[in-house]
Recover the amino acids of this structure.
């Protein structure tokens, strides 16, 4: 069972990292070149992965916090992950709330 749990953690960290990169790389491109109109479609893979990416990010954040609480000598390595996963999770939640707002109240 321990191997299955570790495999699940590896998969969630992988999905959360891919989700982070799918948001970060188009953002850098848009900052450098200025995205207008249909060029915003570079964010579509991140929008597609929002449900799965948000859940994986939340699980990865929870695991990283648990690793920090263990207070081992290498626990400091999880602090950057906690910061990144926390920011991505807040952004994904705010995107979902904004989407719900626009779909329900802006008709």
């Amino acid at each position: 069972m321990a191997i299955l749990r570790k495999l699940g953690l590896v998969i969630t960290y992988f999905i959360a990292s891919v989700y982070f990169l799918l948001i970060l790389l188009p953002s850098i491109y848009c900052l450098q070149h200025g995205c207008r109109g249909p060029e915003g479609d570079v964010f579509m893979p991140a929008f597609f992965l929002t449900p799965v990416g948000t859940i994986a990010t939340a699980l990865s954040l929870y695991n990283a916090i648990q690793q920090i609480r263990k207070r081992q000598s290498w626990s400091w390595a999880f602090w950057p992950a906690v910061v990144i996963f926390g920011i991505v999770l807040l952004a994904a939640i705010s995107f979902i709330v904004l989407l719900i707002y626009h779909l329900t109240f802006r008709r």
Remarks:
- The mean pLDDT is 80.
- The chain has one domain: 2-105.
- DSSP finds four helices and no strands in the chain.
- Residues 2-105 form one domain.
